[in-house]
Design a protein that fits this description.
The protein has 331 residues and is α/β, with parallel strands linked by helices. 41% of the residues lie in helices and 19% in strands. It is globular and about 55 Å long.
């Protein structure tokens, strides 16, 4: 495929979806991410799109939001891996809230296997994914249906969450930065997400690498409120993703990274189903924290000499004893 044809196809994808990751663009145009990055830079120089961390968006992307049909076909492998890992954080008998989004929909499909679970949600897609789970109770908020993402929003949704208390909230959004936290492009969605957060003791954000470093109009969850981020592996050359993750970790956010290739999980682990403990251990093993390694042990002055003296004394005593026994045998 010639460069002009590639760039036209890239531009059409961005226009159709609002935002597309470099990984997805490379897959569709069947070339490397390095080549796609050059094409995106060229299109940005012409003012046809804007580069964002790990992807491309339409100019003025702060206000643009893709609808569900477009979002559902983006970063599918990454969403699957993130959902597999996030499901391991949920234990039997818990009460949780799950916000709207295609990634949270993937999570809900895996939560159907967790017995005794209660899920509060404003998402029709999440509720549908759990509709036939006999051991899961689904509680829906009230509100007005927002057709673009099949979510209930407005004062009715927010009022129905007042007085609610659950263990965890699972949310996704349009962008995530260490400076502002999780954000979205729609004011009504942001307001409901804030109400969901207020009901939870812990907040877990599900966001693939293309959303890291992206900032949108309405803040939903400040960084200091986020307990944990579950994300996917960013490309090795994506230094900005690593920088953003480190900045989030520095502010106290626990980072769990799932492997997108083949839907697996980095460093082992996988979907836990009803086994919350094993999933939690898997997440704990994947914390991207810089933990100082223990340094060389300090030796107490004279300790080594003391050990050598003890060994020499033991050898000396042993030799004396052997000589005494031999002398007794000769007698």
């Amino acid at each position: 495929m010639f460069a002009a044809e590639r760039r036209q196809l890239i531009l059409e994808m961005v226009r159709a979806n609002g935002a597309v990751s470099l990984r997805e663009l490379a897959r569709v145009v069947q070339t490397s991410e390095v080549t796609v990055r050059r094409d995106v830079r060229a299109l940005e120089a012409e003012g046809l799109l804007d580069r964002r961390h790990g992807g491309a968006v339409l100019p003025g992307g702060f206000t643009r939001e893709s609808g569900f049909p477009q979002k559902s076909h983006l970063a599918t492998a990454e969403k699957t891996a993130i959902a597999d890992l996030a499901a391991g954080l949920v234990e039997e008998g818990e009460a949780i809230v799950v916000g709207a989004g295609t990634t949270t929909q993937e999570l809900a499909r895996r939560l159907a296997r967790v017995p005794g679970l209660t899920v509060v949600t404003n998402s029709l897609l999440v509720a549908q994914a759990l509709a036939h789970a006999n051991r899961v109770e689904v509680v829906m908020t009230g509100g007005t249906l927002r057709g673009s993402n099949y979510a209930l929003v407005g004062s009715g949704a927010e009022q129905s969450l007042q007085g609610l208390r659950v263990s965890k909230a699972f949310l996704s959004g349009s962008g995530l930065t260490a400076e502002r936290g999780l954000s979205t492009s729609n004011m009504l969605s942001a307001s409901v997400d804030r109400a969901l957060v207020q009901a939870a003791a812990e907040v877990v954000v599900l966001a693939d690498h293309s959303k890291l470093g992206t900032d949108t109009m309405f803040q939903t969850v400040p960084t200091d409120v986020i307990t944990r981020l579950v994300t996917d592996e960013s490309p090795g050359h994506d230094d900005r993703a690593a920088t953003e993750l480190q900045a989030l970790a520095d502010q106290g956010v626990q980072i769990a990274v799932a492997g997108a290739s083949g839907g697996g999980v980095a460093n082992g682990g996988g979907p836990s189903g009803a086994s919350g403990a094993s999933g939690a251990e898997s997440v704990a093993r994947q914390q991207r924290r810089d933990v100082p390694l223990p340094g060389p042990r300090r030796q107490v002055p004279g300790a080594a000499a003391g050990l050598r003296s003890a060994a020499a004394l033991s050898e000396q005593n042993g030799g004396t004893e052997r000589a005494r026994v031999a002398d007794m045998r000769r007698r």
